[in-house]
Amino acid sequence: MTRKSALNPRDWDSHPRQLHAAYGSTLHRAQALPPLPLPADGGEIAGPSFRAPDVREADADLTRNGASAGAAIGERIVVSGRVLDERGRALRGALVEIWQANAAGRYAHERDQHDAPLDPNFLGAGHALTDASGRYRFTTIRPGAYPWRNHPNAWRPAHIHFSVIADAFAQRLVTQMYFPGDPLLPLDPIFNATENRAARKRLVARFSQSLTEPEWALGYSFDIVLRGPLSTPWES
Amino acid sequence: MLGQTPSQTIGPFFSHALTAPSRDYRPPLGWVLAEDPVPGALIRVRGKLLDGTGKPVSDGMVELWQAGSEGEFRCDGKFRGYGRCGTDGSGLFRFQTVKPGSTGPGLAPHLHLAVFARGMLNHAFTRAYFSDEPAANAGDPVLSSVAADRRPTLIARRRGGEATYDFDIVLQGDGETVFFDA
Q1: pLDDT tens digits, residue range B7-63?
Q2: What is the pLDDT of residue A56?
Q3: Peptide bond before B37: cis, by omega within 30 degrees of 0?
Q4: Is A220 a known active-site residue?
Q5: I want to staple A165 with a disulfide (CB 3.0 to 4.6 A). Which of A95, A114, A228, B11 is the partner?
Q6: Phi, psi (rounded to 5 degrees) for A53
Q7: CB pair distance less than 8 Å for B25 and A98
Q8: How many other CB atoms are there within 10 angstroms of residue A160's CB atom?
Q9: Is A107 a catalytic residue?
Q10: Based on the number of CB atoms within 10 Å of its own CB, is A137 exposed (0-12), middle (13-18) or buried (19 or more)?
């Protein structure tokens, strides 16, 4: 456990509502009743700490960690960013896990039946811990778009799933990172489940020339902001 | 103040990354939080994740965060305090852990849970208290704050003589589990 202080509430103007009719799977899985409040000092404001044995450095390179006999196919990219709280403070030692489809838009998952090739050298799963400045860094393949059956001719925009576990259980976040300029974004019910346009923009990575590695890979920057310590009116 | 990054659904295709070993990949978290010998009583917690039509959710994930047997929050070699389990074709999840101690005066022992699934745009937080702690439960401020008719959804039920507790989670509708805005 690294910290125990009350947290700002989840910002329900930034997070989507549970029931979003355009995303059909929410219909039977969204809670019908509102969540109940908890005391601010419950065990939810504590959280785990992860240590080296749990995390292999090799698992930050998805072009290699699933390879059986060669390089993963597709456009190599670097995805890096900082995990911060709302006050901009770096969250060190956060566990960041990512997973994604391959370059052809197919997951290495038994239930993904999309008629697109699997890549024997790409699993599409990795993880890393943030450093003292809250930074994580992955090397991976740019994922492809893929169809789903939510509505006629529905396609998910290219995205990378992110899971973040930081200092407090209550800060837990699972989200998706999208790519700038994707024409599918305005059509995607999951991306647009977040009604607030400014909040939605936080889900789109920025192209970064400084993260781009010459002769090797384009870089994308994606910062993640979690709930921070409770702000009080007299603090600036 | 920076704006919070919005939550998005975990989607249907996460198990190869988060809950099940795949090729050489080992997700950093699993359903075993503690193994014998460990201070305290080793227990199993199992349950079914159900949707609003009563159907099992076979592509969900439950995470568990809890105190150790003395009520302390820690993560070390013997006791991890944090775990996760994907649901199977019957919606079942399970954990092997220790029974937590009380984390403060008047607080009944409990587990902190987070539920994820395709179709859930945000994860949902809940708590599991223990059926064999009636006296502690009766005095717990969180349990007492919940309407009596919904309180049973927060109780993990001990099976006869076994150190196994059943805790089903209903996402919606009849018998909807109490979720918290943690």
Answers
A1: 999 999 999 999 998 888 999 999 999 988 888 899 999 999 999 999 999 999 999
A2: 87
A3: yes
A4: no
A5: A95
A6: -60, -25
A7: no
A8: 25
A9: yes
A10: middle
Q: Which pLDDT does position A1 carry in this prediction? A: 42
Q: Which residue of B has its CA nearest to A6?
A: B182
Quick check: A130 pLDDT over 70?
Answer: yes
CB-based contact A165 B82, cutoff 8 Å = yes
- Nearest in space to A202 (alpha carbons), one of A219, A171, A225, A172: A225
3-state secondary structure of A160: strand
Helix or strand (DSSP H, E) at B134: helix B134-139
Residue A4 binned pLDDT confidence (cut-offs 50, 70, 90): low
Dump the DSSP string for A89-152.
Answer: -B-TT-EEEEEE--TTS--SSTT---SS---TT---EEEEE--TTSEEEEEEEPPPPEEESSST
Task: Read off the pLDDT band of A3 (50, 70, 90).
Answer: very low
- Between the CA of residue B31 and those of B61, B85, B156, what are the distances in Å? 11, 5, 17
CA distance B29 to B10: 16
pLDDT (0 to 100) of residue A184: 98
- Smallest Cα distance from B42 to chain A, Å: 20
More confidently predicted of A69 and A98? A98
Strands (E), chain A: 76-85, 95-100, 125-129, 135-141, 146-148, 154-156, 159-165, 173-178, 206-213, 217-221, 224-226
Q: Please indicate if any CB of chain B lies within 8 Å of the CB of A83.
A: no
CA atoms within 13 A on the CB side of A107: 25
Residues 129 through 158 of chain A touching chain B, CB cutoff 8 Å: none
